C-alpha cells in the first residue's frame, strides 16, 4: 500500500509540474516573437513527453499487477525462498540460485506468460531491473496474446 501511495503522490507532483511548465510554454507562445514562440513550443514538448512516459509506466504497473493477481488466484506466485543478510537484503548467491531455476523454467516453456512473470521477479531479486522489466513486458505481451519475437 505504501508503494501505491508513493506512486500516486509522485504522479500528482509530476502532473502539477507538467501543468506549470505547459502554462509557461503557452505564455511564451502568447508573446508572439519568433524566439519566444520557439522556446514556448520547446517547453510544451517536455510535459507532453513526460505525460506520455507517466501514462506508459502507469499502464505497465497496472498490467503487471493484474498478472500478479491472476497468478496469485491460481496459486502460482513465486514463493519467497531467498536467504537474506542480517540487514534484510537478499543474499546475492541465493538470488542467483533462484534465478537459474526460473531461467530454466522459462527456457522449457518460452510461450508461458507465467514463467516469464516468475523470471521477471527473479531478475528483480537479482537487482537486474532492466531485464526484469523486459521479462515482465514479455509476460504481459504473452498474456495479452500478442506475438513476441524470440529474445
Task: Summarize it.
This protein is mostly helical and 151 residues long. Helices cover 77% and strands 0% of the residues. The protein starts with a helix and ends in an 8-residue tail after the last helix.
Report on the structure:
The chain is an all-alpha fold. It has five helices and no strands.
Report the biggest beta sheet as strand number plus sense, adding barrel if it closes. none
Strand content: under 5%
The class by helix and strand makeup works out as: mainly alpha
How many DSSP helices? 5
Cα-to-Cα separation, first versus last residue: 34 Å
Q: Low-confidence segments, ≥5 residues, pLDDT <50?
A: none
Helix content: over 70%
Mean pLDDT: 89
Output the radius of gyration: 21 Å
Give the helices and strands as they follow along the chain: HHHHH
Per the principal axes of the C-alpha atoms, what is the gross shape?
A: elongated
DSSP strand count: 0
Amino acid at each position: 500500500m505504501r508503494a501505491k501511495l508513493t506512486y500516486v503522490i509522485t504522479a500528482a507532483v509530476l502532473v502539477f509540474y507538467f501543468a506549470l511548465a505547459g502554462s509557461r510554454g503557452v505564455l511564451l507562445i502568447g508573446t508572439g516573437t519568433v524566439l519566444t514562440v520557439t522556446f514556448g513550443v520547446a517547453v510544451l514538448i517536455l510535459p507532453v513527453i513526460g505525460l506520455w512516459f507517466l501514462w506508459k509506466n502507469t499502464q505497465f504497473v497496472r498490467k503487471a499487477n493484474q498478472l500478479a493477481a491472476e497468478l496469485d488466484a491460481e496459486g502460482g506466485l513465486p514463493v519467497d525462498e531467498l536467504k537474506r543478510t542480517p540487514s534484510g537484503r537478499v543474499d546475492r548467491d541465493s538470488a542467483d540460485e533462484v534465478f537459474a531455476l526460473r531461467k530454466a523454467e522459462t527456457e522449457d516453456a518460452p510461450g508461458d506468460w507465467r514463467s516469464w512473470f516468475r523470471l521477471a521477479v527473479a531478475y528483480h531479486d537479482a537487482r537486474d531491473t532492466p531485464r526484469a522489466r523486459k521479462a515482465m513486458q514479455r509476460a504481459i505481451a504473452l498474456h495479452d496474446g500478442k506475438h513476441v519475437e524470440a529474445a
